[in-house]
Amino acid sequence: MYESLTSRASVTAEGGASGGLLARAIDLITSIFTPFLWVLAGSGLLKALLAVVVKADPDFAATSTYAIWFAAADAIFQFLPILLAITSAKRFKANQFTSVAIAAALIYSATIAVIPNAEGASVTLQAYASGGQQLTFLGIPVVMVSYLSAVIPTILAVYAQSQLERLLNKVFPDALKNFFTPLFTLAIIVPVTFLVIGPISDWVGSGLSSGVNWFWGLSPIIGGAIMGAFWQVFVIFGVHWGFVPVMVQDLSTQGYSLLTGPLFAAVLAQAGAIFAVFLKTKNRDLKGVAGPAAISAFLAGITEPGIYGVTLRLKKPFIYACIGGAVGGAIAASGGSAAEGFVLPGAITLTSAMNIGNFTLQLVGTGLAIVIAFVLTMTLGFKDVPNKGQEAPAAGAAGGAVPSEALSLGAPVAGQVVPLSAVPDKVFSSGAMGDGLAVIPSEGKAYAPASGVLVTVMPHAFGIRTDTGLEVLVHVGLDTVELGGKYFTSMVAQGDRVESGQLLTEFDIAGITAAGFNPMTVLIVTNRGAASAVVPVAEGQVRPQELVLDLVG
Question: Any residues with CB less than 8 A from the CB of 249 and at least 6 apart, and which?
């Protein structure tokens, strides 16, 4: 879903990160939250649409129809521990059904009557504790907190479960562990969560939310400007995942997250810049990518095709959009605007911010962000991409390209060659990013197709600049950025010099495919330098470093 333009810690096929603390934290968050983010986004959009209807017809909120739709939109947030238990169990290699049972116990404790009072009637644990009676477990005092929508307690409880299960599975013989391991795990982990994990996690989560609110209280304008300017930068570096737990925690504790207010300006500013490129570029292929990308970015907040196929490729439009995002984000944040649900920031989800803060300032800020990005791109311009067959004049050349020596590029992976036009991704197949080809890999290793300096390093993508100024991109898999580095083990870092044939990364083809992604590897010449054409010279099966592309002067 989101690309990264810097070196990031690699992740083994088993899912364990091998980089620093930040890299491991990001990998952990992505692996747990990514599988159900689209469901959260869809639920958030439904809440946003309901908010519009209620604004138009306040009486609708009192109808059973509204109640049913609201339940459909809000239930996932209340029962979030169940989803977190499933994905956390997969991440920590714990028994998923035991994890769900633990999460269910946390929700059950806050909603279902479990303790008989003096009159014989049942009361909830929450009511028992709030009634002034000391809640204990085996005589140990229990600090009762609400676990509806709980994020951190659920993840930590499942982690503790995974560790205990490994120990119990070693202790019990095969004939007993199938039912003894879940028995002891539930009997131990649920009380430990109530006694230790839950209260500590609640304190940490509340502290994160309070910290965000405190910072916003000092200067919402500065906070909004930072988020508006750098949100898309955070996205391409993968750092944005660090904000997701904070946002979800805010939504579960206070019903909104101030971090989300400036994001509409940040995202829609990119849409403005993309649309300006669509109007201004003379390149037919680039125009073909920019048009649909502008629509998806504006309406749904899906900016990936526009960023990687248009603004980031051209550089200046991306910067113009960041400027617009900073101004718009500051204005939106100054009015305390925030989204009530977990939504993808876009025009159709703007209504999710109607009831929090000053919605007028949100509209003004977002609109101004779009205008700034659009106007700067149209007036200050960018270096356009020439149409195929046209030569781009080199610096210092009088009316034409400077001929260069022919250069050949080797296959980055072993496998079956595929024409670029047949790649099922328009950003690549349209040629908007450059000419090249693709290979369906038969081996999980990718190599440098030429010697040069690594200017871009991601778990799944590598940009190389040769000594002659040629720029080449090796992109392993389609949309594999959504894996967050999982199934990739990078062997290099940004700034390294590599030689042709040097191993760049190892990747798990089976794991990528099982996760629902296409492992097809693309080789693109993103900047031909002084070369006039890129000519594919291979077909069928190729070996690593077998010549596949010729660049002619």
Answer: 151, 152, 205, 208, 209
CA–CA dist 163, 123 (Å, integer): 33
400 vs 437: CA distance, rounded Å? 27
pLDDT of residue 496: 87
Q: In sequence order, which ranges of 302-421 are alpha helices (DSSP H)?
A: 304-306, 312-314, 316-334, 359-380
Strand order in the sheet with 452-457: 497-498, 452-457, 461-465, 471-478, 518-527, 435-441, 415-419, 541-542
Taking phi over 0 as left and psi of -120 to 50 as alpha, with beta for the rest, 301 belongs to left
Backbone angles phi, psi at 322, to 5 degrees: -65, -35
pLDDT tens digits, residue range 332-368?
999 889 888 777 787 878 878 888 899 999 999 999 9
User: What dihedral angle (degrees, nearest 10) is formed by the CA atoms of 518, 519, 520, 524?
Assistant: 110
Classify residue 65 by burial, with Cβ atoms within 10 Å: 0-12, 13-18, 19+.
exposed
Q: Percent helix, strand and coil across the chain, each rounded to 5?
A: 55, 15, 30
Computed on alpha carbons and rounded to an integer, the radius of gyration of the chain in Å comes to 27
Structure tokens at 411: 């296959």
pLDDT tens for residues 261-305? 899 999 999 999 999 999 999 887 778 778 887 887 887 777 766
Of 490, 410, 471, the closest CA to residue 11 belongs to 490
| Nearest residue to 355 via CA among 268, 261, 263, 266 | 261
pTM, full prediction: 0.52
Spatial CA neighbour of 461 closest among 408, 520, 407, 515 = 520
Is the CB of residue 346 less than 8 Å from the CB of residue 265?
A: no
